[in-house]
Write a structure and sequence with these properties.
mainly alpha, three-stranded antiparallel beta sheet, 5 helices, about 60% helix, about 5% strand, elongated
Length: about 190
């Protein structure tokens, strides 16, 4: 299976075609929500383990992880929506079974580079949030900084793997599973 980068002169989803028309974003809002929730489960467990390691208090670890579960779902969703507007590292994947489809009709996929850039940008946002939340619960700036710094490496690796897993889920899968958008609208009277 081969992939080709998106032609920068070709309008892409998430970019304006120049005629004032805005193309649909690459990832649906539903997909962004599911990605946010699945990542937060992984991220919260990691944060709790790291917080417990540095504080030695299960209660503080759970409080830090629980607070982050709220703040980071919102932050992650916004991060996903922002990246949906950026075509950098988006590729069109050719099917191993050739069809007479123009390149612009081929499904979009994230490249490894795009997944890595998203992992790094999210980690910047996530680490700032971790430090602030950790300080809120520990009232110890040193511990908050150590907790935030400790998770940088684990979270980049985990986020990259999370992105690669989601890159394997074809666009529209969640809509098909939940039956959203599959029913044609009845004709207007």
């Amino acid at each position: 299976m081969t992939t080709t980068p998106v032609d920068p002169t070709e309008p892409t989803q998430g970019a304006s075609s120049g005629s004032g028309e805005m193309h649909q974003l690459r990832d649906s809002r539903l997909r962004s929500v599911f990605k946010a929730v699945s990542w937060r489960i992984i991220g919260t467990i990691d944060t709790m383990v790291i917080s417990f390691f540095w504080t030695g208090h299960a209660g503080q670890a759970v409080a830090i992880g629980g607070t982050e579960a709220i703040t980071k779902i919102a932050l992650y969703y916004l991060h996903e929506r922002a990246w949906a507007l950026v075509p950098l590292g988006t590729m069109r994947r050719h099917s191993p079974f050739p069809k007479e489809e123009p390149v612009s009709q081929l499904p979009l996929r994230d490249s490894n580079l795009r997944s890595l850039l998203k992992a790094v940008s999210w980690r910047i946002v996530g680490t700032i949030d971790t430090i602030l939340v950790s300080y809120l619960w520990t009232r110890d700036a040193r511990k908050a900084l150590i907790i935030g710094a400790s998770e940088v490496i684990t979270k980049i690796v985990l986020y990259y793997l999370h992105e690669r897993a989601w890159a394997r889920v074809p666009l529209g899968t969640l809509r098909r599973i939940f039956g959203i958008g599959n029913n044609p609208k009845p004709p207007a009277p």
